[in-house]
Design goal:
Elements: E1 4-8, E2 19-23, H1 29-48, H2 55-73
Antiparallel strand pairs: 1-2
Helix pairs in contact: 1-2
Keywords: Hydrolase, Magnesium, Manganese, Metal-binding, Protein phosphatase
Pfam family, one: PP2C
Domain PPM-type phosphatase: 1-80
């Protein structure tokens, strides 16, 4: 099974701040593991840098940052 998960509460000392995720392994076990290990930090970093009314955009930026970082770890094989 290639799925992974992440669950954390009381983040950065705030009782009401939590992060829960289930990551589908369709991109492979390496992708699911990378996201489980990095998405929480990237989203939280973006949320802290933004204003309250822009939380949705901050979450999107955290996802994009995680995706970009993972793609940099993938070796692209070229044929012929």
């Amino acid at each position: 099974m290639e799925d992974r998960y992440s669950a954390a509460d009381n983040l950065r000392g705030q009782q009401k701040l939590a992060f829960f995720g289930i990551f589908d392994g369709h991109g492979g076990a390496k992708a699911a593991k990378f996201v489980a290990n990095n998405l929480e930090k990237n989203v939280l970093d973006e949320v802290i840098l933004t204003e309250e009314d822009s939380i949705e955009e901050a979450v999107k930026h955290g996802y994009v940052k995680t995706d970009s970082a993972f793609l940099k770890t993938v070796v692209v094989l070229r044929c012929c």
